[in-house]
Specification:
Layout (H helix, E strand, L loop, with lengths): L1 E4 L9 H5 L5 E2 L13 E2 L20 H5 L5 E4 L2
Length: 77
């Protein structure tokens, strides 16, 4: 599973960029439809959840827990 940003919810706070221990996220440089600079998932292969399938135990999720707007979802690759 890999993290995916949901631009409709993201305010561009970049908390996910700061808390990720594997530096999966980078600061965004293009504004969303709401005008915020949404972080990008630059290195999904570095995510601790990479390679897991739905139902398997996730190992990190710091970005998901830290996001005040729940703008991060996990999708299967």
């Amino acid at each position: 599973m890999i993290p995916v940003m949901v631009p409709e919810y993201c305010k561009g706070c970049n908390i996910c960029v700061m808390v990720c221990p594997r530096k999966v996220f980078d600061r965004g440089d293009e504004p969303s439809p709401l005008g915020y600079f949404v972080p990008v998932v630059a290195r999904p292969e570095d995510c601790l959840n990479h390679g897991l399938r739905r139902g398997e135990r996730l190992r990190c999720e710091l970005c998901w827990y830290s996001c005040p707007d729940r703008a991060i979802e996990y999708e299967e690759e």
